[in-house]
Here is the input.
Amino acid sequence: MTMSITHLGTGSRGNATLLETKGAKVLIDQGFSGAQLEKRLKRLGIAPTEIDCIFISHHHGDHGGGARIAQKRWGLQILANKRTAEELGLDPELTSYFDALDLVKVGDDLAILPVPVPHSGADNVAFVASHGGERAAIITDLGSWTDELVTHVHGCEHIAIEANYDYNRLMNGPYPYSLKDRISGRGGHLSNDQTGEFLANVCTAATRSISLTHLSEKNNQPHLAESTVLYHIDEVFSGDITISLQDGPDYTHYIGEKSTEKHSEQSESLEA
Ligand SMILES: [Zn+2]
Ligand SMILES: [Zn+2]
Here is the structure.
């Protein structure tokens, strides 16, 4: 029982993440053009028509802008809440609607829980995917977190979460004051420090990997995001931390059996 999690790209120019189990291939968000999505999936040896369905977190173009293209070009099924589907003008015949905290099953070995998060002018959700008793969270575009999100993400094996900006870079950077205010407000994005504080609340011994996503190209740097987050979770997390940038696919994370296999390979090589 293994699930893989691969970010095809994350950031303000487009987001999509592939979740793959034995029985299902699902995308979280489709913020790319049809050609870009096809190209990125091809690097993984997958055709768009092999995707079972796409979950959309919210209607902003970098997350849902390519959803209609996926319906039109490949007849793919989109899952979203009502508001997001309306804003994106999705084809109702190829759309299924979920409510907050409704567990959605895909195939016989994957279930996805949408958890509402606050984000400017959008009905945004984070997703917690379960497979064989293990869980992976995909969380992006939120200005702050809720106790409800902490409850659902606590102890997940893999956590992908945005680390959007470095607070000092944003405040000293080129954006007009109103935009700085919007980004750093309750409905904007998480700073590296906020992401670190959230992770300190949810990481347990079960948490084996973290990927930091949706870094601002103007107001952040990978080394700043990684060092700031690690400062907050040093005592509670000893797994792998990676950064997923705009041009993916990059790393593939595994939860389930594969990580146990990796473990035994490691101990064998230590013995040798
Ligand atoms: Zn975004
Ligand atoms: Zn957004």
Summary: The first strand starts at residue 2 and ends at 9.
